[in-house]
Specification:
heterotrimer, A mainly alpha (about 325), B alpha/beta (about 550), C mainly alpha (about 290), B: alpha/beta, Rossmann fold, 2 domains, six-stranded mixed beta sheet, 22 helices, 21 strands, about 40% helix, globular, C: MetI-like fold, 10 helices
Chain lengths: ~325, ~550, ~290
């Protein structure tokens, strides 16, 4: 048991280290920017005096390592700094934006994950059947399709032609949960379509890999029923690959969400990031990138931990 | 339920099986007939590609993925035609009345479940008994076959038990429903000899105890001779010969069978007095350790190899015999000690050795498949040392290439422009020999070079190496676990156990009594081509002579 | 002797060609379709100025004109001919993605192979750096760097190729490691071979097939990411005709039941689908059909 705890501690430490390294990269990259926030905020009105005053006020005259520590310390206390664009605290908007994005991603995941696992396992079990080959061609095509293509096709068919769902996902703070669901159904469907293909292919590959093990053939030669072979012999060894598939795709959703949010003008973190990038509002870019990257690292960490916890060889050491 | 109406328990008639690869169907088994009575043990012998595993598993009405029965095949088990039976009917038989023991227990046990639960699974699922009954039975069986801690060992997970024990647990598992027939598919091939004999004893005890019929599949004649009442010999999916075991051993009829039997007759003629000159290789007090391990894997290893001499290093897995080769070649610099080649001390790391030093000591590997670059033509593989060490190009190189190919008995015109994939396993190993010879070496290390080959092919390689030694005055260091190879090729023998040399000397001295006790155990564990051999050995061991087991 | 050698090479080239054609003839329908589509794209990219009815950035009509005989696919938000811009897009969008993938491959491939062969601290250092880079999603990282360095085509190519090089490093290192552990590499090392021989003569021929497949996959990824960036307005910038930006510029039309924005999007999708079909076939072939048995 100590062995497994050690491994878990190692992974968590590594995850924290990665997060730290990422924060450093994000901070350093932005300090490479020609000019600084003070000039950007003042824009046309910048005189050497006003710039110097604002720099002092923003703490930009301090050496980089102190600024980094201040920035990181602020983030750890939940303070992401001030937007250059409108001079407001980033925190004011960030909360709802993050909530909206997570809402959309989870909504999509709750449709995509079960569906993809089911279809993927089916393709693996009936390998080389007509169903499997069709799935192969369809998923290959949909992996290769840009998100905005799927988005506009669905938008055209479901919202413009049929008029079933709204084409804009303009949620506000006072939007009810049910309304929220209705307004995000279309973007969630788009995300489902684009992420499902990946997940299905990975699930299929993982299951085929698993079924090639000698102990699966042994179970068949012991006269076990097909259902029992799958549930009792394959499944306990399948958690790690399946968890991996799910988590990788959640991570993928987090990124795929950006384009979809822009198409449907959905006020999420992705939209916020895109706006900030266009306006070169660096504090907001930093904040958004850090949150996206942290989510990504966190998800991968969870996958790692779960695959350690479900590995029988690690659970029952010699 | 068991009907006694059928005279034979299993009757296979005109069984033909084909497999799908490279986009077409290939015949694997071409019409084999065999019969098995209750309580009878049938041995199936063949080299790789003979179709012996396929026919064994076909007795369960089962074909591996990508294979199928051809029309006209018939497998009748206790009155039921399996080739036309429904999946459900076959499923009820498998595990309950016909059980299977696989080659690798480590792969065939599910890592997620305890051994005893995998034992009781068949019992419960086939409705033979309850889980508790199965548990009690398992413990009883484990103690009957003298497994250590029979009451608790079943509650371990497969990876927590050693390979030999796991293979025995699998044999016990096959018995869980007291089947009429068990199929043993090379159950001891992956094991060391001293472990193999324990598993063999278990299998024999069990089939005798319950009077179970069995099909025993192996490439090793001597092993099958201990087990079977009758033997059939297969080759390329055809039945070559069929006879009662003693008849088969003493009076084989077919040429192929005779050639199989004759494999173990080759023995090198030792030239006396070869030790008068200076040694070509001198390994002095070498202690070595891999970077990531805590303890050394070689302790104070000390030996010499003289010109024109073959020194065989014998040991089981983990004995450090391959590590010794890595130290000599400079892949693993030793902690202590030194290597001397032709009178000069070699730098311990191969990076620091001169071309001349590297050229003098060559190496031939176990797996010829991975030892030659699949993307190079034979011309490049054998030709590279010629241009690299000797600066040969053009016509001179071509002439030498032809000579080398002639030496290994392969036609240069036919083979120089082929890729390795177009050669057989034995031919690939010959190419490896040619590559080593191309460097014009004084000393060649042969690391288990015949263990991946069929016996007939292996013997060809050994004879070739022997001839080359006479012609070119080579010294060999032969690393092997196989005592038959040692008998065939060695002048001197070094026996290793857990990183130490336990005995060394001239072949006749080491192989004749009195032995060191480990040498004794090793030698006595090698199956002989005599059906009574195992009875004798087991009787001797139970009477308390010698060591019980090496590795454990 | 020399003539003979030449002849041998000639015949072997011819047999290679016939063999390749036979392989294509034997290929599944999806792969044939993929090859055909790729051929068409290459043709259009090379001959865009001759095929297109108008100039790349020429304003030839009113804005958002509907599809008619003069403007087969209508005009865009500035009154430029859509068909012309789509044809030019084959050159610009695909060309930029191809160049980026190429640069990424040289950088990531060389470093990956070196890390695998040399091992030790170099491998450790590069691998750890790549780990951190890969912990940031490519699209996000690209957006951040573009916002810092500005959105020019040159910056886009450099940034995307560096980001993608980290992914290629991983693959190149992994496939090389599979080869490095082989006995024939050990044999070559023990022969005293130098690094250049080991890499070029022993390792490279054995990893070229998986790397070729990977090139196709990475191209798709880069192509899609650049298109997404352009769609978001931070990739390829006007007035260059580019498919991602064209979707963005004409997006409003979709709400008026007009298919125009779907055309450039479909152009992107069709090419990636085609490339993926071809790679799928290629992978099946080179993996020796193990999956089929």
């Amino acid at each position: 048991m100590t062995h497994i705890l050690k491994m878990l501690a190692q992974r968590i430490l590594l995850g924290l280290l990665t997060l730290f390294a990422i924060s450093l990269i994000i901070f350093l990259a932005v300090s490479m920017l020609p000019g600084d926030a003070a000039e950007a905020i003042l824009g046309q009105a910048a005189t050497p005096e006003t710039v110097a005053a604002l720099r002092k006020q923003l703490g930009l005259d301090l050496p980089p390592h102190i600024r980094y520590l201040d920035w990181l310390g602020g983030i750890l206390q939940g303070d992401f700094g001030t937007s250059i664009g409108n001079g407001r605290e980033i925190n004011e908007v960030l909360g709802t934006r993050v909530y909206n994005t997570i809402f959309l991603a989870l909504f999509a995941a709750s449709i995509a994950v079960p569906l993809a696992l089911f279809c993927g396992i089916l393709a693996a079990l009936y390998r080389n059947s007509l169903y499997d080959r069709t799935v192969n061609v369809v998923t290959l095509s949909s992996i290769s399709t840009p998100e905005f293509f799927v988005a506009y096709i669905l938008l055209l068919l479901i919202s413009v032609k049929a008029g079933w769902l709204p084409s804009l996902s303009n949620v506000r703070l006072d939007t009810t949960f049910a309304e929220h669901l209705e307004k995000t159904l279309l973007p969630a469907l788009v995300l489902t379509l684009v992420s499902m293909a990946h997940m299905m292919r990975m699930t299929r590959a993982a299951i085929i890999n698993l079924l090639a093990n000698a102990y699966i053939e042994m179970a068949a030669l012991k006269g076990m029923k097909r259902f029992r072979i799958i549930v009792h012999h394959a499944l306990p060894n399948a958690w790690a690959p399946i968890v991996n598939v799910v988590v990788i795709n959640l991570a993928y959703l987090i990124v795929g969400v950006i384009v979809v949010e822009v198409v449907f003008v959905y006020p999420g973190l992705g939209q916020y990031l895109v706006d900030a990038v266009q306006r070169r509002d660096m504090p907001v870019v930093q904040a958004c990138c850090l949150i996206f990257a942290a989510t990504y690292v966190l998800l991968n960490l969870i996958a790692d931990i779960l695959s350690i916890l479900t590995n029988p060889r690690l659970l029952h050491p010699k | 339920m068991k009907s006694n109406s059928a005279e034979h328990l299993l009757e296979m008639k005109n069984v033909k099986i084909e497999g799908f690869s490279d986009r077409r169907w290939h015949d694997i088994v071409n019409g084999i007939d065999l019969k098995l009575k209750r309580g009878e043990i049938l041995g199936i012998i063949g080299e790789s590609g003979a179709g012996k595993s396929t026919i064994g598993i076909a007795a369960m009405g089962y074909c591996k993925a990508g294979c199928r029965f051809k029309p006209g095949s018939s497998v009748v088990f206790d009155g039921l035609e399996l080739t036309s039976a429904s999946e459900e009917e076959k499923r009820r038989l498998r595990g309950a009345r016909i059980a299977y023991v696989a080659q690798s227990a480590a792969a065939a046990f599910n890592p997620a479940h305890k051994i005893i639960d995998q034992f009781s699974e068949s019992v419960v699922q086939h409705g033979v008994g309850s889980r508790e009954e199965a548990y009690a039975d398992a413990k009883d069986l484990y103690s009957k076959i003298k497994m250590p801690e029979p009451d608790t060992i079943g509650f371990r997970y497969p990876h927590q038990v050693s390979g030999g024990q796991l293979q025995r647990a699998m044999t016990a598992m096959a018995l869980s429903c007291r089947p009429d027939l068990i199929i043993f598919d090379e159950p001891t091939t992956a094991l060391d000899v001293t472990t193999q004999i324990e598993v063999l004893a278990t299998i024999r005890d069990i089939v005798e105890l319950f009077n179970t019929a069995a099909i025993y599949i192996s490439h090793d004649l001597a092993v099958v001779a201990q087990m079977a009442d009758n033997i059939i010999v297969l080759r390329y999916g055809d039945l070559v010969e069929e006879a009662e075991t003693r008849t088969m051993l003493d009076y084989p009829k077919e040429d192929y069978t005779k050639s199989l039997w004759a494999v173990r007759t080759f023995e090198k003629t030792t030239v006396a007095g070869s030790r008068d000159s200076e040694p070509i290789v001198k390994v002095s007090h070498v202690t070595a350790q891999y970077p990531k391990t805590k303890e050394p894997v070689l302790f104070d290893v000390d030996f010499e190899v003289y010109p024109r001499e073959t020194v065989a290093i014998v040991g089981e897995s983990g004995s450090g015999k391959s590590t010794a080769a890595r130290v000599i070649t400079g892949l693993l610099p030793p902690l202590e000690g030194s290597i001397m080649l032709d009178g000069e001390i070699l730098p311990s790391d191969y990076h620091n050795r001169t071309k001349e030093q590297l050229k003098s000591a060559q190496m031939i590997y176990q797996m010829a498949d991975t030892a030659i670059n699949p993307r190079h033509k034979i011309r490049k593989i054998v030709g590279r040392p010629l241009s690299f060490y000797l600066g040969m190009e053009g016509d001179e190189k071509q002439r030498r290439l032809n000579e080398l190919m002639d030496m290994i008995e392969m036609d240069p015109k036919l083979y120089l422009d082929r890729y390795p994939a177009e050669l057989s396993g034995g031919q690939k190993q010959r190419i490896c020999i040619a590559r080593a010879l191309a460097a014009d070496p004084k000393f060649i290390i042969c690391d288990e070079i015949t263990s991946a080959l069929d016996q007939l092919v292996a013997e060809g390689i050994l004879r070739l190496l022997d001839r080359l030694q006479q012609e070119l005055n080579l010294a060999y260091m032969f690393i092997t676990h196989d005592l038959a190879t040692v008998r065939a090729i060695a002048d001197r023998v070094i026996v290793m156990l857990q990183g130490r040399i336990v005995e060394q000397g001239e072949k006749n001295m080491v192989l004749q009594p009195p032995h060191h006790e480990y040498t004794e155990l090793l030698l006595s564990s090698v199956p002989e081509m005599n059906p009574d051999w195992m009875d004798r050995i087991m009787a001797e061991r139970t009477s308390g002579k010698g060591m019980q087991s090496a590795g454990n | 002797m020399n003539v003979q050698v030449q002849q041998v090479q000639k015949t072997s080239f011819r047999t290679h060609l016939t063999r390749a054609l036979l392989e294509v003839y034997d290929a599944p329908l999806s792969a044939k379709f993929g090859l055909l589509v790729i051929a068409i794209y290459v043709f259009v990219a090379l001959f865009a100025p001759w095929v297109a009815p108008f100039g790349e950035s020429e304003i030839v009509g009113r804005k958002f004109q509907p599809w008619d005989d003069q403007f087969l696919l209508g005009t865009d938000h500035l009154g430029r001919d859509m068909l012309t811009r789509i044809l030019y897009g084959a050159r610009n969008t695909v060309g930029i993605a191809l160049l980026t993938t190429f640069l990424a491959f040289i950088l990531g491939g060389v470093l990956g192979i070196l890390a695998a062969v040399l091992g030790g601290w170099l491998d450790q250092l590069l691998s750890r750096i790549v780990d951190v880079f890969m912990a940031i999603p490519a699209l996000i990282f690209a957006m951040m760097l573009l916002s810092i360095f500005g959105t020019s085509v040159i910056n886009l190519i450099i940034i995307m190729s560096v980001i993608d090089a980290t992914r290629i490093f991983r693959i190149a290192r992994a496939v090389s490691l599979n080869v490095v552990v082989m006995d024939y590499i050990e044999a070559a090392k023990l022969r005293g071979e130098k690094l250049t021989w080991l890499t070029i003569s022993e390792i490279l021929p054995n990893i070229s097939a998986p790397l070729a497949a990977e090139f196709g996959l990475r191209f798709c990824f880069v192509f899609l990411t650049i298109s997404a960036l352009s769609f978001l307005g931070i990739g390829i910038q006007p007035p260059i005709a580019d498919w991602g930006s064209m979707v963005r510029q004409t997006a409003v039309l979709i709400t008026f039941d007009d298919y125009t924005p779907l055309i450039p999007a479909a152009a992107i999708a069709l090419l990636t689908v085609a490339v993926n079909f071809v790679i799928d076939w290629f992978l099946h072939k080179t993996s020796g059909l193990k999956d089929e048995v």
